[in-house]
């Protein structure tokens, strides 16, 4: 007698699923069986699409009818460094148009490296009555007109975050478009805006939004007005100042210091353009409570910088320019025992000579003094294998390690050897490493280490490294969890790529520029792998006008269920299908 | 598999082994591609990342002495800027670049430090017509008095003395050489405490 297997009532499973929010877990749930797939898709509220061309909006809408939050990423990461020509793609409009029809109750849209037009912003502003959060990270293509539409129409807006975006801003008046009755703002990040915003509108807005926790200003907000804003929002948790300089006047200073003292909840500081050091002590009252300090744009140097940082004993995240030098990093290591993330940026990246005394020693000090260190981005001009080995031993919990030695192919400056052993130690000791960026002189050997040990690695960035296809083969065949691989200026060619073609379907994307992959290999790959989009980017003109074995300029390969895209500009060719 | 045939994988013999041994064989067999593997600069003909430095040349020979000669290794040691390197965000790059170019095009900027002051300043020497103007500006900037300069006794009667580092790396007293010679040889300025400056202005 067949007995129907007892199963949970759907409502119970739905209830259980409401506690499962991580994308990975949700995806796993959907694979258990058909009924779980169905139940899960009807109650999924948020979706993350890591590559907007991997799927068509209609497919997302068909599968997930009840979404409230959509997150999309567009251009490949190397677009940040000018390697992706303008006009490449990543336009969000088709998505916005589709979402507008399908999800009138949509609340959140988060976009990264996408081209967002004013028209898209207008559609967002008018289509979603309950719209709450808009995050435009490293986006471009819109102006303050689009922002004005959002301000004027999104009555329940809680967050507007324009981090790192490029905005055409002819008018600073868009902020005034928030109606006087609008009081729901909790987060505002306008740090990327070039022009002034209307200060009085800003002050009124800040004053009437009691839930405002995050306020990142742009450099045009003058220091002498900052105190007004702070007094209007003493509940702030995250603050980005504007320009941090003014003529030193005792009353301005004491006003500012008093205002900072009133912000008892402040945990994160950023901004600090054009610092006049005389005003730095105004922030000292909040330093002991800070967990995050971003001085990436701050021209503070020497003793001023060290004094500021060393007062932030609770610091977990520090972003700073290399003005901090080895000596400052030693102090950091002594004072900030909770540090988990350090980013040191170059103050003079194109100078031929070092302008500061920042070497491998600084990073070693931090690894010695900060046992919780997990994430590092470090620009420097010299490195040794010994230092990397030490860092690896000191920081076995490292999950993200990005080292940029400014001179390409720079060897260990003491032994003149490649840095293979040093990075090998990193991947061998840091067993949870998810992200790695290499630099310096590196042979195929480093890739052998990576393929052997970096079993949790998800993203790898490679430049000016390796000797042969063997290097690429080690990575593609060894790194089981590899999701994104980006390579520039390496002698990798056809063989490793074609031999590991199946691997590419298990990854989000592969970028190769200034390598040695031939047009012929690209065509082959495109023809044989229908679930990959193989796109050649070549500004020299059509690749079939050159010999087949000629290397392509740039190659972007990504898995997709959407087929070849329709919006390619003239310098991008798809290798899929018969058209090749 | 079909495309494996096209590849002649047996000919390329991909296998794990010490770098250098496998590559030598595969690079010899991939004759048509070998030039491509080495001249990955084809698409960027005016770009050359190599820079001078015998140490780098040595290290490359140490790690690749069994490879065929590369175009790269014989390239002249010109330092050119590589697109997208170092990997910093483009709009930030524009900011930094613009500031640098502005400064360099406009004037003759030198750093000025004063003993006891917590930070440096930068001034444009081209702006001043002579020593009196320069000294006045420094006095205002750092709130001190330089005193009266005389060739024989240097700066008399002041707690602070303006000095500069010249092209040879020597510390000189500001005012000793003609103005034009000064602005062409001055690398940076330092306002020393009078006690430290002794020995600098004395007639020899």
From TrEMBL, chain A:
Pfam annotation, one family: F-box_5
Subcellular location as annotated: Nucleus
Any one GO BP annotation for this protein: pollen maturation
GO molecular function, one term: auxin binding
GO cellular component, one term: nucleus
Name assigned to this protein: F-BOX/TPR REPEAT PROTEIN POF3
Pathway: Protein modification; protein ubiquitination
Principal subcellular localization: nucleus
Residue ranges constituting the F-box domain according to the UniProt record: 8-49
SUPFAM superfamilies the UniProt entry points to: F-box domain, RNI-like
Sorted UniProt keywords: Auxin signaling pathway, Developmental protein, Nucleus, Ubl conjugation pathway
From TrEMBL, chain B:
Gene3D superfamilies: Phosphatidylinositol 3-kinase Catalytic Subunit, Chain A, domain 1
Keywords: Auxin signaling pathway, Nucleus, Repressor, Transcription, Transcription regulation
A cellular-component GO term for this protein: nucleus
Protein family according to the UniProt entry: Belongs to the Aux/IAA family.
Coiled-coil regions listed: none
Subcellular localization, as worded in the UniProt entry: Nucleus
Biased composition (Polar residues): 51-64
Renumbered residue ranges of the record's region Disordered: 1-81
Job of this protein: Aux/IAA proteins are short-lived transcriptional factors that function as repressors of early auxin response genes at low auxin concentrations. Repression is thought to result from the interaction with auxin response factors (ARFs), proteins that bind to the auxin-responsive promoter element (AuxRE). Formation of heterodimers with ARF proteins may alter their ability to modulate early auxin response genes expression.
Quaternary data: Homodimers and heterodimers.
Name under which the protein is recorded: Auxin-responsive protein
Composition bias type Basic and acidic residues, residue spans: 1-13
Annotated PANTHER family: AUXIN-RESPONSIVE PROTEIN (PTHR31734:SF247), AUXIN-RESPONSIVE PROTEIN IAA17 (PTHR31734)
GO biological process: auxin-activated signaling pathway; regulation of DNA-templated transcription
Protein source organism: Salix viminalis (Common osier)
Superkingdom in the source lineage: Eukaryota
Domain PB1: 107-194
Listed InterPro entries: AUX/IAA_dom (IPR033389), AUX_IAA (IPR003311), PB1-like (IPR053793)
């Amino acid at each position: 007698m067949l007995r129907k297997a007892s199963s949970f009532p759907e409502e119970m499973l739905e209830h259980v699923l409401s506690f499962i929010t991580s994308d990975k877990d949700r995806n796993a749930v959907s694979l258990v069986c058909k009924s779980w797939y169905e139940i899960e898709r009807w109650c999924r509220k948020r979706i993350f699409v890591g590559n907007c061309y991997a799927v068509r909006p209609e497919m997302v809408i068909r599968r997930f009818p009840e979404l409230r939050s959509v997150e999309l990423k567009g251009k490949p990461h190397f677009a940040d460094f000018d390697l992706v020509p303008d006009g490449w793609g990543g336009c969000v409009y088709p998505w916005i148009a589709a979402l507008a029809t399908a999800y009138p109750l949509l609340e959140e849209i988060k976009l990264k490296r996408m081209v967002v037009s004013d028209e898209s912003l207008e559609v967002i502003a008018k289509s979603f009555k309950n719209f709450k959060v808009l995050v435009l990270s490293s986006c471009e293509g819109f102006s303050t007109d689009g922002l004005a539409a959002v301000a004027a129409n999104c009555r329940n807006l809680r967050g507007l975050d324009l981090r790192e975006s490029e905005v055409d801003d002819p008018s600073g008046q868009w902020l005034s478009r928030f109606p006087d009755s609008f009081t729901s703002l909790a987060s505002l990040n306008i740090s990327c805006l070039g022009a002034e915003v209307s200060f009085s509108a800003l002050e009124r807005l800040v004053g009437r939004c009691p839930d405002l926790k995050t306020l990142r200003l742009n450099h045009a907000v003058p220091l002498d007005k900052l105190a007004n804003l702070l007094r209007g929002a003493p509940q702030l948790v995250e603050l980005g100042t504007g320009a941090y300089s003014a003529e030193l006047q005792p009353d301005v200073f004491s006003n500012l210091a008093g205002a900072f003292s009133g912000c008892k909840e402040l945990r994160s500081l950023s901004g600090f353009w054009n610092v006049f050091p005389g005003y730095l002590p105004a922030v000292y009252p909040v330093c002991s409570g800070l967990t995050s300090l971003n001085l990436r744009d701050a021209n503070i140097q020497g003793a001023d910088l060290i004094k500021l940082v060393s007062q932030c004993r609770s610091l977990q995240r520090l972003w700073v320019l290399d003005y901090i030098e080895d000596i400052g990093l030693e102090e950091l290591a002594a004072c900030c025992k909770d540090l988990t993330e350090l980013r040191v940026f170059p103050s003079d990246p194109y100078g031929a000579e070092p302008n500061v005394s920042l070497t491998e020693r600084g990073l070693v000090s931090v690894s010695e003094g900060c046992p919780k260190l997990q994430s590092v981005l470090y620009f420097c001009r010299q490195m040794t294998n010994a230092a990397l080995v030490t860092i690896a031993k000191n920081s076995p919990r490292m999950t993200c390690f990005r080292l940029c030695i400014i001179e390409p192919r720079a060897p260990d400056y003491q032994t003149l050897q490649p840095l293979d052993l040093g990075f090998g130690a990193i991947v061998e000791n840091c067993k949870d490493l998810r992200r790695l960026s290499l630099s310096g002189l590196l042979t195929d050997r480093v890739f052998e280490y990576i393929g052997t040990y970096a079993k949790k690695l998800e993203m790898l960035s490679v430049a000016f490294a390796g000797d042969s296809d063997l290097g690429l083969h080690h990575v593609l065949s060894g790194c089981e969890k590899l999701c994104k691989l980006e390579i520039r200026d390496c002698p990798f060619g056809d063989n490793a790529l074609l031999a590991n073609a199946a691997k590419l379907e298990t990854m989000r994307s592969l970028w190769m520029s200034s390598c040695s992959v031939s047009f012929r290999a690209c065509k082959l790959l495109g023809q044989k792998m229908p679930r990959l989009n193989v796109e050649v980017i070549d500004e020299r003109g059509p690749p079939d006008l050159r010999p087949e074995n000629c290397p392509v300029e740039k190659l972007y390969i990504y898995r997709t269920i959407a087929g070849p895209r329709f919006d390619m500009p003239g310098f991008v060719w798809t290798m899929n299908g018969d058209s090749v | 598999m079909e495309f494996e045939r096209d590849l002649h994988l047996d000919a390329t013999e991909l296998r794990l082994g010490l770098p250098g041994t496998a590559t030598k064989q595969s690079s010899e067999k991939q004759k048509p591609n070998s030039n491509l593997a080495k001249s990955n600069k084809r698409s960027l003909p005016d770009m050359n990342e190599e820079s001078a430095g015998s140490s780098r040349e040595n290290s490359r020979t140490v790690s690749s002495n069994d490879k065929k000669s590369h175009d790269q290794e014989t390239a002249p040691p010109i330092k050119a800027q590589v697109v997208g390197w170092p990997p910093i965000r483009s709009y930030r790059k524009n900011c930094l670049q613009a500031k640098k170019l502005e400064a360099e095009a406009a004037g003759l900027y030198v750093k000025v430090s004063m003993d006891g002051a917590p930070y440096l300043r930068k001034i444009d020497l081209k702006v001043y017509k002579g020593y009196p103007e320069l000294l006045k500006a420094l006095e205002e900037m750092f709130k001190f008095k330089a005193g009266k300069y005389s060739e024989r006794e240097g700066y008399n009667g002041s707690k602070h003395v303006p000095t500069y580092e010249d092209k040879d790396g020597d510390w000189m007293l500001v005012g000793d050489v003609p103005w034009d010679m000064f602005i062409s040889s001055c690398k940076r300025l330092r306002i020393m405490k009078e006690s430290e400056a002794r020995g600098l202005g004395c007639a020899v």
